[in-house]
Amino acid sequence: MRGDSILFPTESGLYCPPGDFYIDPLRPVARALITHGHSDHARAGHGAVMATAETLAIMGLRMGPDFAASTQVAAEPVRIGDVTVSFHPAGHVLGSAQIAVMPDKGPKIVVSGDYARAPNPTCAPFQPVPCDIFVTEATFGLPVFRFPDPQAEIRRLLASMADFPDRPHLIGAYALGKAQHLIGLVRECGYDAPVAIHGALRPLCDFYAASGIGLGALIPATAEEVPAQLIIAPPSAFSTPWVQRFRDPVIGFASGWMAVRVRARQRGAELPLIISDHVDWPALTGTLRELSPAEIWVTHGAEDGVIRWCELQGMSARPLRLVGYEDEAE
C-alpha cells in the first residue's frame, strides 16, 4: 500500500480512506483527528473528534461545549477502520500531538501538526517517532530563521524592565500557548512579581494552571491603574482603546516572526522578542535528519525551501499544498 493511498490532501484537508477520517480538517467532516487547539487546526462542527484530553478541553473553552457531536480522548493506540492511530507529544502547546497512522501493510505516516524542539516549561517535549513518511510543517522553513535562546530573549525583557522601571511593558502574545509560554519562561528566569493579563487570556491561563503548569501570580489588566510592570495581551488588543490606558508603554511582541525586522516595525514593536512555538531552520532540518524517513511531506509554510534542502540531502520530499493553516501560526 502506497503512502498516498493511506493519506492524501483534499479540499477538506488530509484524508485517510482506510480509516475514513481527516486530520485537522478545514471544514466540518464526519470524523476528525485534531493535532492541537489552535484555530487553524481545530474547528467546530465535526461529527466525531479524537484528540488529547487537553486539546478537547481547549476546544471546549474556545468554541463552547457543543463543538462536536461526540468526542474521544486519544490515549492508547486505537484501531480505526483498517489503520491504527496513536498520538505523541509535539512540543508546540499544551496537549499538542503528532498523529501516527499505521496500516497493517504499508508505510507508517506521522503527521506532526505544528511542533517545536526547544524546551518549553508549559507543555510536553516533542517525541521523535520513527516512521516511513513524516509530514512536517514549514512555518519558518527558510535558512534565515535561526532563533536565539528563549531565555536570552526573556533576559532582554527583564533588562528593559530594570532600565525603565516607570514604563509598563506591554507584550503581545497569542492566547493559546504563546502567552503561557512567555509567562513560564519569565518564571524560570526568576521573575516572581505579579504579571497582569488581558481578560481574553484568563480562561486559558486558568486552564494551564489547573493542568499543573505553574504560572505564578496573575492579576487582571482591566483596572485603570494596573499594579504590574509586565502586562501580556493578545495582539488584537493593541489596536483597541484598551492599550491607551497605559502611559508611555514599552510595546513588544513575542513571536518567531519578530526575527523579520519589517514585521517588527509594522507591529510598532520597541521590544521584539523572538520566541516561537515552532521549529526554526536548524531544528526543522535536524529533525528530518534525526528521523531520516523514506519520504518527507511538507505543508503550511515555506514548502519550497524545505523541499530544496531535502533534494540537496538526497531525501525524497514533496509539497502537500494545503491551504488554511496560517490563521494562528504564531
TrEMBL record:
E.C. numbers: 3.1.-.-
Keywords assigned by UniProt, alphabetized: Exonuclease, Hydrolase, Ligase, Nuclease
InterPro entries, sorted: MBL (IPR050698), RibonucZ/Hydroxyglut_hydro (IPR036866), Xnuc_lig_assoc (IPR026360)
Cross-referenced SUPFAM superfamilies: Metallo-hydrolase/oxidoreductase
Gene3D superfamilies: Ribonuclease Z/Hydroxyacylglutathione hydrolase-like
GO molecular function, one term: exonuclease activity
Top-rank EC class of the record's enzyme: hydrolase
PANTHER family assigned: BLL1145 PROTEIN, CLEAVAGE AND POLYADENYLATION SPECIFICITY FACTOR FAMILY MEMBER
NCBIfam families listed in its UniProt record: Xnuc_lig_assoc
Protein name per Swiss-Prot or TrEMBL: Ligase-associated DNA damage response exonuclease
Annotated source species: Paracoccus mangrovi
